[in-house]
Amino acid sequence: MNIFVGSLPFSIEEADLRESFEAYGAVDSVKIITDKFTGRSKGFGFVEMTNDDEAQKAIDELNGATVQGRAIVVNKSEPKPEGERRSFNNNSRGGDSRGGYGGGNNRGGNDRGGNRGGY
């Protein structure tokens, strides 16, 4: 079972989290999610446990428990439905996505219109 663990103290290490869950059974993996730019914890992570009964007991016992002065949130991690994933290539402003200077009025360079500068 994949378990979501939220409201984690930013200072907690994966080894500490693993130890908390191993009190309830075998832990396959522990992953604390970090900011890719700063490397700092985002305050949540995931624990994977093989045995669903042990995992459910860990959820029941640890949800709301205080870890380093913070009440943590622990529940079963449900995968997001495919349609709800956040897309980074959507143009959320709507309308036209032409940048900056008002679109097609090219004011620079060569004037090929009626004004030929006296030639």
From TrEMBL:
Residues 97-108 have a biased composition (Gly residues). InterPro entries: Nucleotide-bd_a/b_plait_sf, RBD_domain_sf, RRM2_NsCP33-like, RRM_dom, SLIRP/GR-RBP-like. Keywords: RNA-binding. Residues 1-79 form the RRM domain. GO terms for molecular function: RNA binding. Pfam families: RRM_1. Residues 77-87, 109-119 have a biased composition (Basic and acidic residues). PANTHER family: HETEROGENEOUS NUCLEAR RIBONUCLEOPROTEIN 87F-RELATED. This is RNA-binding protein.
